[in-house]
């Protein structure tokens, strides 16, 4: 499941396992600091071995895969955009991932500016004049792409780490060309 060589992504939701059976006493929740410990130590080792760009590409690609799988398992792609967004926003808050909002939207062109407050990945980190949420870029691109059936580019333009109190993302569909 995890140690075989592969040339394509093989993740499916079943790989998450039966958390209820596996953690009958502790349950499905953990502290944000432990999530960040795993993410930031993994990121540190990857940057050391592969460099920043390769690490960012891997995190973005993993986020995109996660966004697609999240959509496939929790979202009905037949919903209109308002229902899709409301249900997604509510679910991300329920799961304590962050507080998603639409700051602006051109639904005809599907160009969006989204914000995430209390972001799982970065809220509370020291200001370092960087945007750091590349996994979130991928997650939102995968989520929007799976919902709409069109690939999306998502770029973080403001971040807690750049001094803002929300993460702000511009999302645009990629040209079919």
TrEMBL record:
Q: Which organism is it from?
A: Megalodesulfovibrio gigas (strain ATCC 19364 / DSM 1382 / NCIMB 9332 / VKM B-1759) (Desulfovibrio gigas)
Print the organism lineage.
Bacteria, Pseudomonadati, Thermodesulfobacteriota, Desulfovibrionia, Desulfovibrionales
Every copy of the 4-vinyl reductase 4VR domain together lies at: 111-173
Q: Name one Pfam family in it.
A: V4R
Q: What is this protein called?
A: Putative 4-vinyl reductase 4VR
Enumerate the InterPro entries for this protein.
Answer: NO_sig/Golgi_transp_ligand-bd, V4R
